Amino acid sequence: MTIPFSDRISDVPRSFIREILKVAIDPQIISFAGGLPNRNFFPVEALQNASNKVFETAGREALQYANSEGDLILREMIASRYKEKKGLDIKVDNILITSGSQQGLDLMGKILLNDGDGVVIEEPGYLGAIQAFSVYRASFHPVPISEEGMDTERLQSILQQKKPRILYTVPNFQNPSGITYSEAGRDALAAVLERSDTLLIEDDPYGELRFTGKDKTSFAKRLPDQTVMLGSFSKIVAPGLRIGWIVAPDLIMEKLIVAKQASDLHTQYLGQLIIRQFLQDNDLDGHISTITDVYNQQRLAMIRGVEQYFPEGVQFTRPEGGMFLWMTLPSDLSAMSLFHRAIDKKVAFVPGDPFYASRKHVSTLRLNFSCVDKAGIDTGMARLGGAVREAMEQR
Amino acid sequence: MTIPFSDRISDVPRSFIREILKVAIDPQIISFAGGLPNRNFFPVEALQNASNKVFETAGREALQYANSEGDLILREMIASRYKEKKGLDIKVDNILITSGSQQGLDLMGKILLNDGDGVVIEEPGYLGAIQAFSVYRASFHPVPISEEGMDTERLQSILQQKKPRILYTVPNFQNPSGITYSEAGRDALAAVLERSDTLLIEDDPYGELRFTGKDKTSFAKRLPDQTVMLGSFSKIVAPGLRIGWIVAPDLIMEKLIVAKQASDLHTQYLGQLIIRQFLQDNDLDGHISTITDVYNQQRLAMIRGVEQYFPEGVQFTRPEGGMFLWMTLPSDLSAMSLFHRAIDKKVAFVPGDPFYASRKHVSTLRLNFSCVDKAGIDTGMARLGGAVREAMEQR
Q1: Which ipTM was obtained for this model?
Q2: CATH class of the domain comprising B7-42+286-393
Q3: Is A114 on the interface with B (CB under 8 A)?
Q4: Which regions of chain A carry the CATH code 3.40.640.10?
């Protein structure tokens, strides 16, 4: 038989990162290519204790089917944390627990996008969002970002001409660039977006991983009826539990719940209860500061590595938090060809290409600093700096 | 702002069952309305032990991001079980772990259905499948089923006229009817489907819950290149873990993995490892026979209840396994109006209406026997029989 696949699945890019990382499995390779939190700092023992408590006090509930919205008490805890950390008043009914925030993206695409509908994405932008919205046949409108935020002039013209349905942003310690929008940049974006029919999705997986500087205010403060927030425990507790959430206004939430039911009935309940018990019995802020101390040390080691081992003409971001540093090579150097040279020297990174909706052979690249210790970062950056130097000498 | 939702989400029926069950939360009500496995027989202690072993031997792996296909060893175990129980040779690469088999339905819809594409469903049929495929704007073509299987004459004419993309069947102890297709019925369906471009989805969540009779052979034996199988640990271990799987031919699997990545990256890894450890350390067959012994006792109590308390003119299926018994009232009695009368008498069931793609005010209903003990079933059936009797006297 011939299998006629849907048009939507033909449009989805296969994970480029996943493909290129297959060459990086050599254990000799120091990898800055990953996008993972550092597993050495997962609170394994505390989660095991939480798991045991759940099995002992609510084992049968944890193992039974559960409601689609997610555990009520866990949602209350998320709401309280929004109040405490961001001064936001979120009702429990406006929170839906998702199977990671990747599912938040899938559900938003599902309920909002018809074929060809416009989605504004950041350039460079998060690949998982591009994948999720591609499934619903989005037309992507990339807008360049800088340390201030989005290019609002470009945005304005897209809003007028294309009437996009969604604007997707990761305004804190963005993946891949490490960029955090300034308050002024947020104000400017909100002013442009206000009174349009474009919904803003604020994805904030890294926001709590701040090393220096002051927290910036959420778009939900500026555009409360027009903002959907995605959150996740993946970077602050552990990703393998796949517990994320969506905060959305009433009308949107109603559709999200229908879509959630149809997609997987509900998020794994044992994992929800483990996280809830973990939050009850442990100091999440203390745990986060353990992680951020380590990540910050590693970030500083990476910055020192660039300064020490890299030739002139290489630029990079100095992120105030998160897991990534973004590097811009001289414009005639392709990050993709540097990648192969770097692999020969036993160091890996992600070339910028997959983070652009259309551009290829870019001269930007992403460096992850969460997973390699300081000594490894020093060695790896010396190797990578050498590879850049060679590439520049041989042009 | 106005929120323009996608066309697809407007088409999805909200869960009718969920809505009507809101009236059945009174603890005095004996409920045959649920569709849940009996939580009293979840292997809580064994799963807690498995969880502890996972935390102790592979805690950091279990909590980290994992691959989209699912745990390799768990997939090997699933493949071995297919070999042992059904004589099927399944390669590990043709198995994808999903977040419950509801996600299997969502992924199949995602990769196969364009707007308006045809899906053959059983009548009555499983509501979760109707919901999942509605999201992808399927046109449903219901085909009546009986103890033999599908009405193949009707099916043939649909295949010719509508060229449906998918045929969806639950051939063992179907939800809602409890029906199991005969071998002859399976042969007939396969003969009609062969050489068409319609893919058969064999969803088999209840197949291992057999009380009497002999296992029937899978469609995968008859139409190996044209059959996708969905499986789940929900009914044989525990649903709260949300671990299901899809078995699909290579070309389909390739697309499924792309869709899985875009949907939620991967199924919760801790849960996969807990199930794997549970399977390694415990006798699943022994556990299943504990469950089936109880369910069978309850099924027999329910059948005795019908015989004892119900008036002439009420028909019902005698399922050889699973969790449901299907009842047909005299054709001028509406199950929906009986529902309200039954609630007054403190007994609940699911009227047949939601299990039909279009028909309403049907005279069929679904009775679940997995969750109420024998004494409760006797009392509940006496109440329900009384309600039926009254309804018949008052017509």
Answers
A1: 0.95
A2: alpha beta
A3: yes
A4: 64-281
